[in-house]
Design goal:
Elements (H helix, E strand, L loop, with lengths): L14 E6 L3 H12 L4 E7 L2 H11 L3 E4 L8 H11 L4 E6 L4 H9 L4 E4 L5 H12 L4 E2 L1 H12 L13 H11 L4 H8 L3 H15 L4 H10 L7 H12 L1
Length: 240
């Protein structure tokens, strides 16, 4: 969506921004905030991590605003890939979730900042964009608390008592790493139907309606962690 009726002329010193979020209203809202500023312009939007990477390959923006929970490729893996291919593009994660697992994963992926949508008035967003553009890391108040806890070693992964069985947890862990039902079936040497049955039972036990909700719930409770090597293995498998 290059241009898309937005500013047609870009000053030389304008900060060129793309927005990656799976919700159209959020994408449009973030772009309007960006376009309302004299020193920045929204040059494109994406609804998942794969589209974001493709846009950055084409447009070479200065800053990418990236959501965490997106289909096809999540914001964490997208951030890792963006920073690997385009280190000159600053990545500001704009998330609805303050889970420390997500903050830590985004830091590990070399994100330049992590801010919460719920705590982000427009003036704070454009301020954060200007800061990461200048090379300054940005975290809002809640995210900063988590960063300080992580840096001081106060926060530790302590699994709670899970409502799920070990096989159901493994299914969720693989889903969190981005594997499809077919890939999970191959990984665990079970049938697609069995994988589907596991998800039905997981949804019932957790009272959720989707894979993403189940994964986020399990991560927030500390029941599962997604190993970096598993994410990379899945990425390589999809690329082959």
């Amino acid at each position: 969506m290059k241009g898309n009726g937005r500013k047609l002329l870009m000053a030389k010193d304008e900060i060129r921004v793309i927005v990656a979020d799976d919700h159209e209203l959020v994408r449009d809202g973030l772009c309007r905030i960006v376009d309302s500023e004299e020193d920045m312009v929204c040059v494109g939007v994406a609804k998942n991590g794969l589209e974001a990477i493709s846009l950055i390959d084409e447009l070479k923006p200065d800053v990418a605003l990236v959501d965490v929970a997106m289909p096809d490729m999540d914001g964490i893996e997208a951030t890792r890939e963006i920073k690997k291919k385009h280190p000159e593009t600053s990545v500001l994660v704009v998330s609805a979730y303050d889970y420390e697992h997500f903050v830590l994963a985004c830091l590990d992926a070399e994100a330049d900042g992590y801010v919460l949508k719920t705590n982000l008035p427009g003036k704070d967003l454009v301020g954060a964009i200007r800061m990461v553009y200048r090379g300054v890391s940005v975290f809002d108040r809640e995210s900063s608390k988590l960063v300080h806890k992580l840096a001081s070693g106060q926060s530790r992964h302590v699994p709670g008592t899970s409502l799920l069985g070990q096989r159901e947890l493994k299914v969720l862990e693989l889903a969190a790493a981005g594997l499809s039902n077919k890939q999970i079936a191959l990984e665990l040497n079970i049938s697609n139907q069995t994988v589907g049955t596991h998800f039905i039972n997981i949804f019932r036990k957790l009272n959720v309606q989707s894979r993403m909700e189940a994964v986020l719930h399990a991560i927030s409770k500390g029941w599962i962690k997604v190993p970096k090597d598993k994410l990379e293995e899945n990425s390589n498998r999809d690329a082959s």
